[in-house]
Design brief:
elongated; alpha+beta; 2 domains; 31% strand; six-stranded mixed beta sheet
Length: 496
């Protein structure tokens, strides 16, 4: 019909799930920008007369009482988070703070043009709303949707569990169909700030860009040993500083501490004793060429498109960090550890301990002051190993003269050998698909650990459909897998 715009996901099954997923994608909902999506969930509940709660942080609980005949069945909590890691290609015109996503379909693949998709964890919301809006057989459902999971599980930490009666939790924040997660790592964020006085320096103002990297989720893909743009930039700055005087005008890189950074930039004033501006330029270009060759070899099978380039260079007088603070900042960035620190002995193939420098910026820190800021995600399935790695970072910061703050500390989710919920879900899965599910744990964090600390005796399993490249602008969600997990979820709820 003329004048009526078709939905991108029109007629894609399950239609009710993809209807709500598309509605969610119309609303900006990056971490720290979840007010609109939180209010959307409240309106959904009000329109249907459902019991609901919204707290000051924006967490939302929506409750639907048991279907007829299920009144004596124990309640079930369904849980996911409303925030997404909002990243985009450098050339994308989408404003992730105010625009909806540009959904597209290619065969079985659902993606967003030029941006991340937010399947992590918009699909949990879509599943939950479809269930609450439908006429299905189920016990009392308690849908819990938290804010800011991606930046430290802040929502789950602040959640008031008083309205919740369920002792069984199905978390919908996993990315592989047929894998039942039953444990995860704990984590924390280490924030460093190195401040110093600014001075004015005249020399070669050079902007350098590190890019072409794949990035990825620092919990799910840290073992792939992909390049980290912030660490590469630190390596370059140190290399430059060996041959010239390097003064920092500006630094920026990454979008979230739990996303492996794909891009980093530095604006530097370069000079050297007895060196002309042209000589500084030539030396810089030579070092960039050298480093590009090294990186191409080192990352050949991991990040083959890595590129370090000079964006611009011109003689200019700029406000920069003083020499002492700038050199300490360069040392800090060069020394930052990254990647897998230890593998699990108990579960072969599972990362035990890792870290990811994910955020870099330079900001004003008062009159005549500038600060270099770094945000680092630390993960470990062993609480003692997590603490030890944090202690190493604190020591490094002290040596550089940086201030530190630890935020978003959350517990791991310990694997339990006995889980009636997991047993029942496994039974249903094997009957539906003729094979056993894989029982696993992951290095990434899910909110089950925090919720289990709030609700003693909570029996948890985490599931979800197939996704690829989450937390990147190449993120994709399998349509057929979304349908498969939906059918499984409906069947499980009918039998619980």
């Amino acid at each position: 019909m003329k004048g009526i715009k078709m939905r991108v996901l029109e007629n894609i099954k399950p239609e009710n799930v993809f209807f709500y997923f598309e509605e969610i994608c119309k609303i900006p909902h990056g971490s720290g920008n979840t007010g609109q999506i939180s209010d959307y969930l409240v309106k959904f509940a009000l329109d249907r007369g459902l019991e609901h709660y919204q707290d000051e942080t924006g967490n939302v609980i929506i409750i639907k009482e048991a279907a007829e005949g299920y009144e004596d069945h124990g309640p079930v909590m369904l849980q996911g988070h409303m925030d997404m890691v909002a990243v985009k290609r450098p050339d994308s015109a989408v404003d992730m703070k105010s625009d909806g996503l540009l959904l597209a379909v290619d065969g079985d693949k659902l993606y967003a043009e030029g941006t991340s998709l937010g399947g992590d964890d918009g699909i949990a919301i879509a599943y939950g709303l479809a269930l609450l809006d439908g006429n299905y057989k189920h016990p009392r459902i308690e849908l819990v949707v938290t804010v800011d999971e991606e930046v430290g599980m802040d929502g789950a930490r602040a959640l008031d569990a008083a309205p919740l009666k369920a002792k069984r939790l199905i978390n919908l924040d996993s990315e592989e169909e047929g894998i039942f997660l039953s444990g995860c790592a704990g984590g924390a964020r280490v924030n460093m700030q190195l401040s110093g006085e600014t001075v004015r320096k005249k020399g070669l103002l050079c902007e350098i860009h590190v890019g072409g990297l794949k990035g990825g989720h620092s919990g799910g893909e840290i073992h792939k040993e992909r390049g980290n743009a912030i660490c590469i930039l630190g390596r370059l700055l140190n290399r430059l500083n060996l041959d010239m005087d390097v003064f920092i005008n500006d630094l920026n890189g990454g979008v979230a501490d739990n996303a492996i950074p794909t891009d980093a930039r530095a604006k530097l004033v370069l000079m050297g004793e007895g060196m002309t501006d042209e000589a500084c330029r030539e030396k810089t270009e030579a070092l960039l060429k050298e480093l590009n060759g090294e990186l191409k070899e080192e990352l050949a099978d991991k990040d083959e498109n890595v590129c370090v380039e000079m964006v611009s260079a011109a003689v200019s007088e700029e406000e920069v960090l003083c020499a002492d603070t700038g050199k300490r900042a360069i040392d800090l960035l060069c020394l930052l550890p990254y990647g897998v620190q230890a593998m699990s002995f108990a579960m072969p193939g599972l990362v035990e301990t890792s870290l990811n420098p994910g955020l870099l910026s330079a900001k004003e820190a008062g009159e005549g002051q500038k600060a270099v800021c770094v945000g680092i995600s630390v993960r470990s399935s062993l609480e003692s190993a997590k603490k030890a790695l944090i202690d190493r970072l604190l020591c490094l910061a002290r040596m550089a003269g940086a201030e530190t703050e630890i935020t978003g500390d959350y517990p791991g989710w310990a694997f339990k050998s006995s889980s009636p919920l997991r047993d029942k879900m496994s039974e249903v899965y094997e009957r539906m698909y003729g094979k056993k599910p894989v029982i696993s744990a992951i290095h990434a964090g899910v909110e089950c650990g925090l919720l289990a600390h709030k609700i003693p005796g909570l029996d948890c399993v985490s599931i979800g459909p197939d996704m690829k490249n989450i937390h990147t602008f190449e993120e994709e969600l399998s349509i057929s897998s979304t349908a498969g997990v939906w059918d499984f979820l409906v069947t499980v709820l009918e039998e619980l």
